[in-house]
Amino acid sequence: MKISVITATWNCAGTLGDCLASVAGQTHAEREHLLIDGGSTDGTLAVLEAHRAGLAVLVSEPDGGIYDALNKGIGLASGDVVGFLHADDVYADTRVLARVADAFADPTVEAVYGDLAYVAKEDTGRMIRYWRSGAYRPERLRWGWMPPHPTLYLRRSLYADFGVFDTRYRIAADYDLMLRMLTRMTGRVVYVPELLVRMRVGGVSNRSVGKILRKSWEDYRALRANRVGGLGALAWKNLSKVPQFFRRG
């Protein structure tokens, strides 16, 4: 079971080393790591070149943003399964990809996801929020539920069937893609009830009031476009985040 891990980078030299080491340290050997850089100028390329031996693909060129970069990675991936690890993030332990591969050993499984921890930017051991995903049920989508995208792995064939990230969304293309996949795929969706990824706080979607408002508008558009729900689902989606601040696993 070959797993493709795609990382999009842009001026992230300060955290990228942790991400690269996290992938390189995985016990699941049948994997490839694809790095798609947007033309960084801060030393990111020097970090990537230092780790070049561990990368299956390294591309550095101007792009149209993170979703355009991730789409490039999908197009270059050769694995049976595709997942993403952002440059600020790390796996929870060395056996994350092994557990993902075990779940995909069942040929009827098309998607696998787990839990996500939001951690402090300077200390990935300090937890801010814990996102316990819970088991998948299709009806939960209408209540604003979604799996944490950084923990989601999909069979590569699904991208050929249902498309890649819609770059008309600037912040919520991941939500749109998950809704599109989950409402159309016919295979099983498996929840691994363990922490899979530690994600540093400070993402683009919550850096300002303007970004938050734009994300809510894009989330609403995604819900409507995929015929999942509307304002009610959007409200529940946002309210569901509150308990994450009180969980620690």
Automatic annotation (TrEMBL):
GO terms for molecular function: transferase activity. Pfam families: Glycos_transf_2. The keyword Lyase does not apply. Keywords: Transferase. CDD domains: GT_2_WfgS_like. It comes from the Bacteria. Residues 4-143 form the Glycosyltransferase 2-like domain. InterPro entries: Glyco_trans_2-like, Glycosyltransf_2, Nucleotide-diphossugar_trans. This is Glycosyltransferase. It comes from Thiocapsa rosea.
